[in-house]
Design goal:
Length: about 475
């Protein structure tokens, strides 16, 4: 039923129904259901159609949120989808996993007195409904171009760039070292936030649109960057960041201590039906164990909630700052607490305890001292405040750094920042190598899916401008595409 707008005064905020905690703890399905058409229209109608929409300003892809909310409220889903997909290649994924409380919804002006419009849930509803209605089509260009682009990395940045370039008619090849396309959407983020069929549905569309995926193809191992440059007119590096940060304290070499991504990949692979020996033999499986996760970001939240679902007997999260100063989304902390996770704020590990296998963590209480150069208060240990947490499985979720791309790709001349991220000219997104562009986490450092999409789209525009300006290598032999197997 079509709704008038500005209903926030008399219509309360209502997210899609959240599954019962006991049921959630037993499986890996997404925790939120879907709006029905009436609820979606009602919730969209709460928007006050701001002249200066702060929601849009704080959305990394500058979604035209007020317009698609109005169209949804009027039941015009086809048009809502057209507007929403004009700025975002993966709206149903962003609707599920953007930290909306820090982005669009956190800046919705009615948030102050009336609770924000449920922007992400409506965005998810629009695209999921558009899929059901058959409105979401593969990227089919009006005319084909001979020029080809090689994209290294099939995560959100690579997928967004691939779709945009394909729409413009380029021959697009995506190279990924994994056996599945999607990057961290497949192997990092757990099912209870993003079920994998949602990602696979997108990959299928790209494949139907003749994007060529080269799975199990690792640049640096299976070919060099120089070789790829010969095959393509332009290259986009979108390889993400995967070098896990570590902690060097006594006991670091004990067994039963793992990096977060190893733990999450094993769980995601299991969910996808793969054989995972280290999961099956119990090594990377929290079933029946006391689990301690170290860290306070989204990755740590994903680990604790995965451990709950695997049947851990207790799950504790150790973080050196407090709740307000953690990097992870507050919504995710609430979900974890509902599911039985215990947070131990203002505490840092000092040593892993045990003999051969880890049996616990010795930690120390912290307080927040003076602000550092970035303005964040520095955690400092409180003397004589040690305590011990018993554990059978310890997961380190301390963040990620870039791998050494110039060395791996055999191009020592590729410029990187002092953090190891690839340096680009931010006006063109090109690296210091002619025709080689970069996007996503490998440029920004560990970031968000929606920023990866934004970067992928911007890179596609810049690659198009570069190729249309005719600056691409002259006289490429016509058989180059055929060389790409
Ligand atoms: P990636 O997604 O990392 O993709 C890079 C791809 O490059 C991978 O498929 C990799 O296999 C491939 N690759 C790497 N090296 C090579 C090579 N040499 N040759 C060929 N292929 C290569 N963000 C959110 O917005 N919301 C969340 O809830 C969220 N949760 C997260 C949970 C976890 C556990 C993690 C780790 C991250 C999470 N993020 C989240 C962050 C988000 O996943 C990333 O910011 C985003 O995926 C970055 O996209 P990308 O395309 O740059 O890189
Ligand atoms: Fe909000 Fe993310 Fe959607 Fe933008 S893309 S409107 S930030 S959920
Ligand atoms: Fe609507 Fe909130 Fe955006 Fe204003 S800020 S346009 S009320 S969603």
């Amino acid at each position: 039923m079509a709704q008038r707008m500005l209903k926030f005064g008399n219509l309360g905020q209502r997210f899609p129904d959240k599954r019962d905690v006991d049921a959630r703890r037993q499986d890996f399905q997404e925790i939120f259901g879907e709006y029905d058409p009436d609820r979606a229209a009602q919730q969209a109608s709460r928007c006050s159609q701001c002249g200066i929409p702060f929601c849009q300003i704080h959305c990394p892809v500058s979604n035209n949120i007020p317009d698609w909310l109005k169209l949804t409220a009027e039941g015009r889903i086809e048009e809502a989808y057209e507007v929403s997909s004009a700025t975002n290649n993966l709206p149903e994924i962003c609707g599920r996993i953007c930290p909306q409380d820090r982005l669009c919804e956190g800046n919705c002006v009615i948030e102050k007195g009336f609770d924000s419009v449920t922007i992400g849930s409506v965005e998810k509803y629009i695209t999921d409904t558009a899929f059901e209605m058959g409105l979401v089509k593969p990227p089919m260009p009006k005319r084909e171009r001979e020029q080809s682009v090689g994209i290294i990395g099939g995560g959100p940045a690579g997928m967004a760039a691939a779709e945009q370039l394909r729409r413009k008619g380029y021959q697009v090849h995506v190279y990924d070292r994994y056996d599945r396309i999607g990057g961290l959407l497949i192997y990092g983020i757990p099912n209870f936030k993003l079920e994998k069929w949602v990602v696979e549905r997108r990959v299928d569309l790209l494949e139907k649109g003749n994007v060529v995926f080269h799975r199990n193809f690792e640049v640096g191992r299976d070919t060099s960057l120089a070789d790829l440059q010969k095959r393509h007119d332009a290259i986009l590096i979108a390889t993400g960041v995967y070098k896990a940060r570590d902690i060097s304290i006594p006991g670091a070499g004990l067994e039963n201590i793992f990096q977060a991504l190893d733990y999450l990949i094993a769980s995601n692979r299991k969910g996808l039906g793969d054989t995972v020996p280290l999961f099956d033999d119990g090594t990377l499986n929290a079933d029946g164990k006391r689990v301690v996760v170290i860290g306070g970001g989204d990755t740590a939240m994903d680990c604790v909630r995965t451990a709950v679902r695997q049947g851990a007997t207790s799950v504790k999260c150790l973080y050196r700052r407090d709740r307000t100063n953690m990097p992870g989304s507050q919504r995710e902390v609430r979900h974890a607490e509902e599911e039985g996770v215990e947070f131990i704020w203002l505490s840092a590990p000092e040593a892993f305890l045990g003999n051969g296998e880890a049996s616990g963590v010795r930690a120390v209480r912290m307080h927040l001292g003076d602000a550092d150069a970035t303005g964040r208060q520095t955690p400092q240990p409180i003397p004589e405040s040690h305590f011990t947490l018993e554990a059978d499985l310890i997961v380190k979720a301390l963040g990620f750094d870039p791998e050494e791309v110039p060395t791996l790709f055999g191009v020592p001349e590729l410029e990187v920042s002092r953090w190891g991220t690839i340096k680009i000219d931010f006006r063109t997104m090109m690296t210091n190598l002619d025709g080689v562009f970069a996007a996503g986490d490998i440029v920004r450092g560990a970031s968000l899916v929606v920023w990866g999409i934004r970067d992928g789209r911007d890179a596609a525009e810049n690659i198009d401008a570069y190729l249309q300006a005719g600056t691409a290598g002259e006289g490429r032999p016509a058989q180059k595409l055929a060389m790409v197997s």
